[in-house]
Design a protein that fits this description.
This is DNA polymerase III subunit delta. There is one protein chain. By secondary structure, the chain is α/β, with parallel strands linked by helices. It has helices at about 5-10, 15-25, 40-55, 70-75, 95-105, 125-135, 155-160, 170-180, 185-195, 200-205, 210-225, 230-245, 245-270, 280-285, 290-310, 315-325, and strands at about 30-35, 80-85, 115, 140-150, 165. It has 16 helices and 5 strands. Helix 6 links the parallel strand 3 (about 115) and strand 4. The radius of gyration is 25 Å and the shape is elongated. The model is unreliable at about 330-333 (pLDDT under 50).
């Protein structure tokens, strides 16, 4: 079994099992809809699926990854495997029309043809209707895979003509393990794994120096709120607003703050999966002074601030209001 297949099988075992079973039993459908969150392996699975069908020496539906067909598909230059992606913001009717012309031709090197439509939910109405005609009258030995993160935007008539395979979000521990394997520290990996289920995005965040500094500043803000009630506003002006300048930055800061309170709550109930594992021993003493109700209230305050942020409330006023509310209820030491 190839490394690529093993990796994806560990993340999406049900999807890979369905694909391999359909190949071994010669029951490959003419159209599939791969749906799920970004970063869950939909495109990788599509490429592996194509390799499985064209591989010269596949075993039990698993491609070898070394033959000429596997390599050409990997490099996106196999004449009978086509990938359609949005041109600009959408997939146009002309793209589907060109695809249909390919459908009508005999395969260049075999009788099979394979098509992947990335972000299928971005098809224009005319493009979707054109594709529907193909799905209603499928060509023999032709397989199409539609990929989407937003299945609700796909025409119901298209969905009804596809076999839908749902890709599950990647678990936190998988993201954390992959980040550590890439050389990311345990503490940063644990935090980033709580922020995204997308491995590519997780790597980008973890390697961003801005994020490393953001982590330090939010931890400092929390510490100031806990210890020095009169310094909260000063901390906002001297550190926070200098780093968190834009609305998405503030949103990220609120995510980090929320995870701090979540960790304090978890410590109180002996939950080990923390976003800030390096602060566990320090926060264990603090958690003794905080009730579950109070921590729940503080988390609610942060969530409410995120809602107000998305409603375009002034960011400085929003953070000042939040700091004042979060300062209440602590036993200052």
């Amino acid at each position: 079994m190839t490394k690529a297949w093993e990796e994806l099988q560990s993340l999406q075992p049900l999807v890979l099992q369905i694909i391999s079973n359909s190949i071994m039993r010669d029951r490959v459908a003419h159209a599939y809809l791969f749906e799920g969150q970004r970063g869950t392996g939909k495109l990788k699975a599509s490429i592996l699926f194509a390799k499985s069908l064209f591989c010269k020496v596949s075993t039990n539906g698993v491609p070898c990854d070394h033959c000429v067909n596997c390599k050409r598909i990997e490099n996106k230059n196999h004449p009978d495997v086509h990938i359609i992606e949005p041109e600009g913001l959408s997939i146009k009717k002309d793209q589907i029309r060109a695809l249909q012309e390919e459908f009508s031709k005999t395969g260049v090197e075999s009788t099979k043809k394979f098509y992947i439509i990335v972000d299928a939910d971005k098809m224009t109405v005319n493009a979707a209707n054109s594709l529907l005609k193909f799905l209603e009258e499928p060509q023999s030995d032709t397989t199409a895979v539609l990929i989407t993160e937003q299945i609700h935007r796909i025409l119901p008539t298209i969905i009804s003509r596809c076999q839908t395979l749902s890709f599950k979000p990647l678990p936190n521990f998988v993201i954390k393990k992959r980040l550590i394997a890439e050389g990311i520290s345990d503490e940063v990996a644990a935090l980033v794994a709580n922020l995204t289920n997308n491995l590519d995005e997780a790597l980008q965040i973890a390697q961003d120096e801005w994020f490393a500094q953001a982590r330090k500043i939010v931890l400092k803000l929390y510490d100031v709120l806990r210890k020095k009630s009169l310094q909260g506003m000063v901390q906002l002006q001297e550190n926070f607003f200098l780093h968190f300048k834009e609305k998405p930055h503030i949103d990220r800061a609120l995510d980090l703050l929320l995870l701090i309170y979540k960790d304090l709550l978890y410590i109180g109930i002996n939950h080990d999966e923390l976003a800030f594992p390096d602060y566990k021993s320090e926060w264990e003493a603090q958690a003794l002074h905080l009730s579950t109700n109070r921590l729940s209230e503080q988390m609610t305050l942060v969530l409410d601030a995120k809602r107000k942020l998305n409603a375009n409330m002034n960011t400085q006023l929003l953070m000042e209001e939040l700091v004042l509310k979060l300062q209440g209820g602590y036993t200052f030491v």
